[in-house]
Amino acid sequence: MNSNTKVLHAAKLVGGSLLLIGLIILSYSLYVSDSNMLAGVGVGTIVGAVFIFLMGIFFVATEEMLEKSFKGVAVIVKKERPYRRSFR
């Protein structure tokens, strides 16, 4: 569980910082500058931040499900007789 929280905190930190940077770039391009290209960079940064955060959440959830999943049934191998008799 400790490794899951580390990955979750890292995804939250990276996603949040990229989201903040993207919002700053987008608001600068809309209110201060008239550059449409800068608005695209801001929107792309925001979408990338959301994607990174969702992939982190997916990774943590997948790892948690694999830890709690059913591990299977032990297979017991029967010893077969070396010569089988035929009843014909």
Name the shape in a single word. Answer: rod-shaped
Helix content: over 70%
Low-confidence runs: none
Q: Please state the structural category.
A: mainly alpha
Q: Major beta sheet, specifics?
A: none
Number of strands: 0
Radius of gyration from the alpha-carbon trace, in angstroms: 27 Å
| Overall mean confidence score, pLDDT | 85
How much strand?
Answer: under 5%
Order of helices and strands: HH
Our count of helices gives 2
Distance between the termini: 62 Å
Summarize the structure.
The protein is mainly α.
What does the model show?
This protein has 88 residues and is mostly helical. Helix content is 72%, strand content 0%. The protein is built from two helices and no strands. The chain has helices spanning 2-31, 36-68. The longest helix has 33 residues, at 36-68. It is rod-shaped, with a radius of gyration of 27 Å.
Topology:
Blueprint: H1 2-31, H2 36-68
Helix pairs in contact: 1-2
Key phrases:
single chain, 88 residues, mainly alpha, 72% helix, 0% strand, rod-shaped
